[in-house]
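Field: COMPLEX_INPUT
Field: COMPONENT_COUNT = two
Field: RESIDUE_TOTAL = 1428
Field: MODE = joint
Values follow.
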Amino acid sequence: MRATLLLEDGSEWAGELFGGCFPASGEVVFNTGMVGYPESLTDPSYSGQILVLTYPLVGNYGVPQSRINGTADLARSPFESERIHARALVVAEYSRHYSHWRAAESLHAWLDREGIPGITGVDTRALTKRLRHRGTMKGRVILSDRESPAPEPEYDALVQLVSVTEPTIIGSGRQRVALIDCGAKAGIIRSLLQRGVSVLRVPWDYDLSSERVDGVVISNGPGDPKLCGPTVENVRKLIEDGSIPLFGICLGNQIMALAAGADTYKLKFGHRGQNQPCMRVGSRRCHITSQNHGYAVDDRSLPEGWQPWFFNANDGTNEGIRHRDKPLRSVQFHPEARPGPVDTDFLFDEFVAMLGSKGGGK
Amino acid sequence: MKSTITKPKSVLILGSGALKIGEAGEFDYSGSQAIKALKEEGIHVILVNPNIATIQTSEHLADRVYFLPVEKDFVAGVIERERPEGVLLGFGGQTALNCGLQLEADGVFERYGVRVLGTPVAAIRLTEDRQLFADSLAEIGVQVPRSRAVGAVEEALVIAEEIGYPIMIRSGFSLGGLGSGICPTKKSLRDTAVKALALADHILVEEYLHGWKELEYEVMRDGQDNCVTICNMENLDPLGIHTGESIVVAPSQTLSNEEYHRLREISIRVIRHLGIVGECNIQFALDPESDECRVIEVNARLSRSSALASKATGYPLAAVAARLALGFSLTEIPNAVTRVTMACFEPALDYVVVKIPRWDLRKFRRAVKTIGTGMKSVGEVMAIGRTFPEALQKALRMLEIGARGLIGDQQISFDDLEEELRHPTDERIFALARAMDAGWTLEKIHDLTRIDFWFLHQIEEVVRIAATLRQFAGGDLPGGVLREAKQAGFADEQIGLLIERSEDAVRRMRRSRGIVPCVKQIDTLAAEYPAATNYLYLTYQGREDDVTFDQKGESVLVLGSGAYRIGSSVEFDWCCVNAVRTLKKLGYRTLMANYNPETVSTDYDECDRLYFDELNLETVLEICAKERPKGVVVSMGGQVPNILAPQLAAAGLPILGTSSASIDRAEDRHKFSSLLDSLGIDQPEWTEVASIEEAAAFAEKVGYPVLVRPSYVLSGSAMGVAVNGEQLARFLARAEDVSLEHPVVVSKFIMGAKEIEMDAVAANGEVEMYAISEHVENAGVHSGDATLVLPPQRTYLETTRRIKRITREIARALEVSGPFNIQFIARENAVKVIECNLRASRSFPFVSKVCKENFIEAATKAVMGEKVEWRRRSFFELDYVGVKAPQFSFTRLHGADPVLGVEMASTGEVGCLGDTFSEAFLKAMHSVGYPLSIGSVLLSTGPIESKADFLEYARILASMGIRFYATRGTGEFLARNGLETTILHWPLEKGEPNVMSTIADGNVDLVINIPKNFQEEEVTNDYLVRRQAVDFGVPLVTNLQLAKRLVEALQGMKREDLLIKSWEEY
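Field: COMPLEX_OUTPUT
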């Protein structure tokens, strides 16, 4: 069955349908990673987006068992949440046959079960170049001319939709870290649990002032950080207090910046991939990072007391900020990886080391 | 951030010497890139490499070039003279690394204050000694296969019992897995261990990880501890087949994110722990059914895989590694492809790359055809596509073994499919398709091969499409079917075979449906950033081109040489690179087409546009349809483009230089022969036959021996010399098997004649530049295996005069414009033409560098109709002599008969200079493994005439106090002539003292075995002697003239007579 991706600029990208037999709409973004489609599709940051993969062969290793048994499985499961968040998947060459000892079903079967359409046979390189030239655009996946278009994502309420509704406690570690869930990847929770802390996962707009925690992580999530007013306000209070170590990731970096009084802006086509080099400011150390973001912190707008921590070595954009004296830090990339390189995993070590040593950040 | 490093003022680079199995063109690529990078940093570069055919030894690269053996004493001599501040050991393969380790151990670097740049020697030693390596990795919790180093065979057997069979044997300090093997039984372990221990002090007895996936990562690390992995690659063939023998795919196809990044993290942990600075390669075994993995090996240097990774990703690994060795950080080096980003990143591919090794096993009589843990392939091809079948089928065509793809060809057949799948030969990939076509289940195939189901499914897809195509035999293909086939990499010709239509008809059908390929760019970042260079490939999975075709100025397309193979190697890459450089100087935009990842011609910065794609009619037509070049140059890349010329011309493409009609007149025996007849030029008597009776009648008429060969000769494939009717019948049967389209030629084989080569450039039929070289060996040894001397030392002046005259006449008659080569045989001034190629020949770099005249620059000007200037310096006035010597790789080719003949067998060559013939000759011979002095020699000098002929030289050896061993006939002959020898039993006699045990015990320094016959099919004593010599690494001479020259040189030259002089000083 044919399916077509229609872009805002009028261009049409026809291919064969696989996965769910439904139309879709969303913001069209591309990711240059060569592995990790189960991780990416379940990453809540892709909420409201149609994902284009630049690597042409997709589905090769199928999809593993989605049921998770215990912590060991959690550590290895490629799922970053319990469902697919991307609105649709666009690839050049879907691999109908898969092979992997952990695979339980095909990518097609999984997408079908989740009602997510996929298009294969698209010149994803040409599509990517168009997105690069014109910037991220909205688009629609249509199956025929007659159908009624898929509803637009509620771009203004993406975080609300992917966050939890009630606080939950995960793990039994003595030290407790609150995770402000703006659409948190399971990888963040895993990275914290592996270090022996317990995690208090709270909704995106949860006021933490009445909770006793040793540290706070502000998670990744979809969309424009300026739509997270309540979160920004809550984080601003934590910053003013300054005694609890804070660690922001991705959207969390942008929220941290806004809370500190700096500004954010939308990138032309964002950074999505597993090969983004980030330099640590003031050093010659460069880390290869996993990224998925469409907005960035304007580090020229950082107020007194704050400084850039990392920057993107390709285009110079901000990749992290830190407070000069207080244990307040955040990064634009994904130290929890999944998908992508695990090189910046040490940032969790550094964060956990700060817990309980108030003001210990350098 | 400003760099604080202190760059050395001068740096010595060690090359890898002659191309050999396991160490080939990839080191010309890595060395050339390193030299370029150092020159850009303003560093004075000194290069030691006797491989005269390489680009790295060109005049425009290093400041000083020494055509000397990469051997510690010679290199120490160079260091003493040049006093470099630094040395690079990682760019010349295992040869350079081993030499560097010895120099370091001898204290040479310390004595002269030479800094080893990049990875410290201590780290190299950790990677080279397998026990130290295993211990070191254990410190960081990384597992290697369970193993133990042993120094004796009995010890190996004990350890094997502990680990359990099958057992893997590995040898340290080896190139390409030499001396490695899988041993299912005690007996095979004993056999392998004996041989391996003859070549190394210790070997490793290891657990064998049957069926595990094999993966590689290419890793870079700088002095600031920044690490990146440039590429990961997956072997289609599971563990058990050397990675150099495997079909390799980049990036990995069957790894999940977790696996990909787990192995990546281990790679980085290992490289940091070992302290590598620069580039290294790490190989993994991964259990296909669990999370278990092992690190198999680390190569702390540029390798075959790093060259592949570099071409697969577009990331200039060698150039970056050279800068890292100087102390630069990855963050200080720009990404040369995008020019806006930097080198500290990991390439993202948006295509798939397939590498397939190129073997030439059928060229070697008796060679074992199965592939395994040791390398046997002589080259490789790399194909790029947007689907796996597309890349795979392209690659199979690129091999130039007659396959039009995975399926559709009838000539590849298997007597026993199951055996082929279980014990693979070089043709297993075709057997997979055959088995599927025959209805075998993938489960059965998987059980036999352990190849991952993903790959099997992809191959099955090709088989399925072929079956669909066959349903349309004789008719028209629906557009959808045709498009699907093209996206799966089916060639027009292949589709034609399947639907019983001509290639041309399929092409017309395809174009009428608007199905044409797209040109896509390799940009290292999957289109995230615009690319500034033009590294391109064609694909049918796409809807638009990445580049436009409206640039100003005329362009010229140069066709490259394709895979390195016996008979076509780095020399043609040198020709192509020089042609492109000249074309640029003449103001043309340069387009290059080639698919060999080991080459410099496929470097991103050599030409204006690189088409990394096939060299056949279809692809060249598609490229030209888009680019509309002024014309195509077919004379630089050897035989592959040369034989394409008539087809290209017939399709209406302009062939630049010598016309395709002339090329055809030279290639077609009949036409060429009548041309020679009309010019009154002599040639050996010959005839063309269609039956054995005709051939026998001819042979009776002219007298045996006769030479048998197909009309289009590529390095003498299927050639043979028959001494009687029985042999003749056998060769004919084999020759007809090779090609039905081209008839078989039988010619008189002339014995006792000299062979002489003419390399020349003509413009509009007038010879403008030439060089004459003579062979040391008498006619009968393939010119590619012969030892070449320039200027000639033993050729009559009258002979050279006649050769010049004939050359001029032929050039005029064929209106040659460009490079050409004629081979002559001469006896007592009677000169006959035996071959003429209207293209650059194998010896062009040799004559260019010896004469210090760039023949290719001149030839390119001639091709383009520009004036050729020559200083007209006669080569007889050279004050020095150049000698080119062949490199053989028989040790790796189990069972192959190591004897010189009309079939080319060498894999590479060196060229050295000297003030005298003997000096240049001995340098060259030493560069390819012959000793400079010997204590003992085993003589077995063949028929009585050659025994007598050699007697004088045996006396010379005796006068030098050299101990003789001899086989009975030779020993008795020498005794009759007053020379004392130890007579040994022949191998088949089994008595002691025996030739076999004497060689195995290391008592013999040199074996001279002159065969009694041209080609022996059966297992003879002679064969066993020769095989024993190469199996135990004892230098072997099988040609009488070569033996004589070697004896003279050994007598006349001491090591100190071999002067350390750079090319510039001659």
